[in-house]
Recover the amino acids of this structure.
């Protein structure tokens, strides 16, 4: 029993790292653009398919393939922001951006179905199938590699946000867009690049998702986006540290419940969200809105 | 009654008459099927709009009430061995269950605003879908079957159509009443600035919760009807994420917060979507088209068809005249202009 609990906690932390990677993109986009990108889930699935295509057709290693898919997803993100998100203004912007990103998700999902079909796919490589024995339990290498990659990427994001000039303008835009514009920050450019970065990390997240989720198809986006939303709300919208903490917390909780009640494991995810928000409506690390509308 | 009000009343009567005559004119069951679904969605979109459109709290969890209504009447019909025409007597149960679920749901979700509210409604939706999968009384993934109705296949849809029409008219009338009432004004005050509304003495929580429960009750009622019509409910059809999306799209397409907007949106989008899925046997292509339609609506008519076209009409009618009426004392003010005459 104790062994299972340890295993569940380790699993939760390792998979939590992968979710953190996807959730950070989402919360970053929220913080800067004040929108919830519903398409994030399907973009992760798209990232998984891109890795799948590169691996199956061109025999490119999953991790090496990221050198191609991450820039490609970045460009896609900038293009989406520039053509569909940027034109939206006005009072209904919150709900409209939600609908637009939902529409984008539908289109991408349809295209993926059209090209790849509904069959469930798996990303395969030697490190997905073979395991390593650590402290008495077995772990597929992919979890370790993925966790390391997630940590590296999140650190890189941290450096980008807190140690560069661009990062400072991103944080300034997150705090107060009008003031940021007044001090000479090109907030449109910041918004486009942030959206691009937020989408680019889904390429890495998608590769990990495809390799560890036990199969994916174009329909996987719905389940994924709802989990990611629960994570970023729990962590506090716009808080990067919160997204990290909430990912690890939620995934650990889920894998613990999975030991006893596997059919309820997913529900616990959302129930935890509801319970936490009852006590703390802004999530773990969220700031209270100055003047919510 | 002014001329504009008269025209509007005549329009409503004409639309109602057309709706009542519809299954008598088009007797083909394939066509009346479109009618039943359209009416079901008119009712749901109006109900959704009565809460979300007026209060600005966008709910992506109304499928919770729809599915719960469907399951409630399904379980009751099975447990009490109700068959034949008696099943329609159980429909109010759907409304009661929808309302009962909405109270705790609303008490939790309405504490938070904007994006967080939307996400909570999505979370609730997934919890309910999972419950439908996992509980034994909902019979898991196989779902529930409705009692068999041994009606003539040629006119099978008609009773459903008229009941759905009654629900649709009721929901729309309710939306109209709410919009005109003090209650509706409070809701819209909350939409525009909740803190200020509270400062002015609006009991925000009470008002929001009442609208939420009202909206949920209608959605649950219609969910029960939908269940009898398609004769079965499964967790993924009763609690369908696309349902929420469609309802929002309908209300947006027609015009959020207007009374006629969601009706128009449902009348166009639901048959359109059914038509697309029959024309394109390839469901994915219709999904892409739907997404593209969605994008087009939001980008080109961000405020919906009804408000945008009302703007266009006003612009057409006032073309060539100054945008602001000349002040008192000017020559134009003495004689009412044709535009003013048309308005009064």
């Amino acid at each position: 029993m104790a062994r299972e609990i340890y295993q569940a906690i380790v699993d939760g932390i390792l998979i939590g790292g992968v979710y953190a990677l996807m959730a950070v993109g989402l919360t970053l986009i929220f913080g800067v653009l004040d929108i919830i990108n519903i398409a994030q889930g399907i973009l992760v699935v798209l990232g998984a398919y891109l890795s799948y295509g590169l691996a199956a057709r061109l025999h490119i290693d999953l991790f090496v393939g990221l050198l191609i898919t991450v820039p490609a997803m970045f460009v896609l993100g900038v293009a989406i922001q520039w053509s569909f998100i940027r034109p939206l203004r006005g009072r209904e912007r919150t709900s409209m951006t939600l609908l637009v990103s939902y529409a984008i998700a539908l289109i991408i999902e349809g295209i993926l179905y059209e090209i790849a079909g509904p069959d469930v796919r798996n990303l395969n490589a030697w490190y997905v199938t073979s395991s390593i024995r650590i402290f008495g339990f077995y772990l597929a290498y992919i979890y370790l590699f993925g966790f390391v990659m997630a940590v590296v990427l999140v650190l890189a994001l941290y450096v980008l946000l807190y140690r560069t000039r661009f990062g400072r303008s991103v944080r300034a835009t997150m705090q107060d867009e009008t003031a940021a514009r007044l001090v000479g920050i090109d907030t449109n450019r910041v918004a486009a690049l942030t959206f691009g970065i937020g989408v680019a990390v889904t390429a890495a997240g998608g590769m990990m998702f495809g390799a560890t989720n036990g199969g994916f198809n174009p329909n996987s986006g719905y389940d994924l986006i709802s989990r990611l939303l629960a994570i970023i709300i729990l962590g506090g919208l716009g808080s990067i540290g919160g997204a990290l903490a909430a990912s690890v917390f939620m995934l650990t909780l889920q894998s613990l419940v999975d030991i006893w009640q596997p059919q309820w494991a997913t529900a616990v995810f959302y129930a935890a969200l509801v319970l936490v928000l009852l006590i703390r409506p802004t999530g773990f690390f969220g700031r209270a809105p100055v003047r919510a509308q | 009654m002014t001329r504009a009000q008269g025209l509007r009343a005549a329009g409503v009567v004409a639309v109602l008459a057309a709706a009542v005559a519809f299954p008598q004119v088009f007797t083909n069951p394939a066509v009346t099927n479109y009618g039943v679904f359209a009416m079901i969605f008119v009712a749901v979109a109006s109900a959704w709009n009565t809460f979300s459109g007026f209060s600005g709290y966008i709910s992506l969890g109304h499928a919770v009430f729809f599915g719960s209504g469907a399951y409630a009447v399904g379980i009751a019909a099975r447990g009490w061995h109700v068959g034949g025409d008696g099943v329609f007597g159980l429909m109010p149960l759907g409304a009661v269950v929808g309302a009962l679920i909405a109270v705790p749901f609303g008490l939790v979700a309405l504490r938070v605003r904007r994006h967080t509210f939307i996400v909570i409604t999505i979370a609730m939706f997934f919890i309910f879908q999972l419950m439908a999968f996992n509980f034994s009384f909902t019979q898991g993934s196989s779902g529930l079957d409705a009692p068999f109705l041994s009606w003539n296949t040629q006119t099978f849809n008609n009773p459903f159509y008229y009941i759905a029409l009654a629900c649709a008219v009721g929901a729309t009338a309710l939306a109209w009443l709410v919009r005109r009432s003090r209650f509706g004004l409070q809701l819209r005050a909350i939409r525009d600035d909740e803190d200020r509304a509270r400062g002015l003495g609006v009991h925000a929580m009470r008002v929001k919760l009442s609208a939420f429960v009202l909206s949920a009750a209608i959605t649950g009622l219609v969910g029960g009807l939908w269940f009898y019509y398609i004769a079965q409910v499964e967790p993924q059809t009763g609690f369908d994420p696309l349902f929420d999306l469609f309802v929002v799209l309908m209300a947006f397409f027609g015009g959020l917060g207007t009374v006629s907007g969601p009706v128009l949106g449902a009348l166009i989008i639901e048959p359109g979507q059914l038509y697309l899925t029959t024309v394109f046997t390839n469901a994915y292509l219709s999904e892409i088209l739907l997404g593209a339609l969605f994008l087009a609506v939001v980008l080109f008519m961000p405020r919906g068809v009804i408000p945008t076209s009302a703007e266009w009409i006003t612009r057409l009618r006032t073309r060539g005249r100054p945008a602001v009426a000349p002040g008192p004392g000017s020559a134009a003010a003495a004689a009412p202009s044709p535009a003013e005459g048309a308005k009064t």
Notes: Residues 29-240 of chain B form one domain. Confidence is low (pLDDT under 50) at residues 326-344 of chain B. The CA atoms of residues 77 and 231 of chain B lie 12 Å apart.
